[in-house]
Amino acid sequence: MEEARSELVTLTTDRLVLRAPRESDVDAIFAACQDEEIQRWTVVPVPYRREDAEFFVRTLAPEGRAAGAEFIWCVVERGTGRLVGAQAVTRQAGDPAAGSVGWWTAKEQRGRGYTVEAARAVARWALTDLGLRRLQWLAYVGNEGSRAVAERVGYRHEGTLRSYADQRGVFRDAWIASLLPADLD
């Protein structure tokens, strides 16, 4: 299994670059996370302040990466550098060979297949280069957009976990699905 690295590997797809968050991303992250849908379906702070975007870029992403516990990418369009969203892989506590994935997409970038494209690249990296044996996707019940992405990537639905996922102090029902190395196309 790969050791913790100080620099996050950059992933590229036909239309996207997935790279470590940069100081120059703060304004775009702050703007994207004002979206009610991102706030509804993720654990971003509400209200989302500029300081939260700064913390994401300056502290959360680099410290998680340095510890080898969490790998966070900003997803940007090739050519324009416009922020599409974010993707993350977090090693599971107690089982470092398994990880959880998460993503959000800026409102104006939805419906273009970007999140599926990025999630495939992240899954391939995590299950091959990082050497994880399992990735799991969790989403609050009702998050049909995230579920559609997970299904298109190849995650297999495993069920509903009742009162499982914490969102700002409230435990909500969550869907769970998994992807294994053998599931990669």
TrEMBL record:
Xref: SUPFAM superfamilies: Acyl-CoA N-acyltransferases (Nat) (SSF55729)
InterPro entries, alphabetized: Acyl_CoA_acyltransferase (IPR016181), GNAT_dom (IPR000182), Ribosomal_N-acetyltransferase (IPR051908)
Species this protein is from: Kitasatospora cathayae
Annotated protein name in UniProt: GNAT family N-acetyltransferase
Domain N-acetyltransferase: 16-181
